[in-house]
Amino acid sequence: MLHKNVENFGQLDHAISQWVWRVSPDWKRLIIKPVPIDQLFPGLPNPIDAAVSVGHHLWVFVGEKIYVIYGNRMAHAPLTLSEIGIDEKYIDLAYEWHYFNPPAIYIWKGSRYWKLDEKMDHRRVDERYPKAIDLNWARVPKGVHSAFTYEKEIHFTRGDQVFRMNSSRSVFDIADGYPQPLQSFFGFCPRNEKLVLNASYFPSFAFFTILILNFYL
């Protein structure tokens, strides 16, 4: 299976376990029961900080290391943040934004963000970065812990809320009708459990969507 548009997933305090949920493309219907992340990606360390699709590969960020996965196997030895031009010990989130063609890949840490350089096959960050998050993303709510693209709009999550950003407005603010509760946005979520998103989706080659969540009782 080729992973496309992989966004961010990670670990929050008090998480009991992490699971992979395969849902329909409209994100409303569960296709299969959840599978543990380490079963889908054998050998992947925990905790995971973030993940994003880079071409046909999945980049998984764990501390200073970047595990490059093709299908569900490690493509080669891990990269490091310093190798791609990021002077940090770990990152907060990563995502692919479809506002541009080709889509841009962003990485956030603290008050700064980087963009991978497509001219260098996304192997390093653009030399014009880092930039301050408040420079271009000032209206994104503080404390977000993941991001994903849905219907070509970037969404951020914080706790049990989803924030959709409106790229059609010059101020790039939160879209009307948001934030929404996770359980409303993701219609397949059980109503008697608390599900906190700290990841996004994997629209796969087989027209499925894999959603990685932190599962709380």
Q: Which regions contain 5 or more consecutive residues with pLDDT less than 50?
A: 1-17, 195-210, 213-217
CATH top level assignment: Mainly Beta
Helical fraction equals under 10%
- Count of domain modules: 1
CATH superfamily: Hemopexin-like domain
Average pLDDT rating? 76
- Which structural class is indicated by helix and strand composition? mainly beta
What's the N-to-C terminus distance?
30 Å
Quote the CATH topology: Hemopexin
| 3D shape | globular
Largest sheet: 5 strands, antiparallel
Query: Would you report the number of β strands?
Result: 18
Report the order of strands and helices.
Answer: EEHEEEEEEEEEHEEEEHEEE
Keywords: Membrane, Transmembrane, Transmembrane helix
Transmembrane segments: 195-216
Protein name: Hemopexin
Hemopexin repeats: 88-140, 141-189
Explain what you see.
It is a single chain. Strands 1, 2, 16, 17 and 18 form a 5-stranded antiparallel sheet that branches. Strands 3, 4, 5, 6 and 7 form a 5-stranded antiparallel sheet that branches. The chain has one domain: Hemopexin, CATH 2.110.10. The protein is globular and about 40 Å long. With 217 residues, it is mainly beta. The protein contains 3 helices and 18 strands. This is Hemopexin.
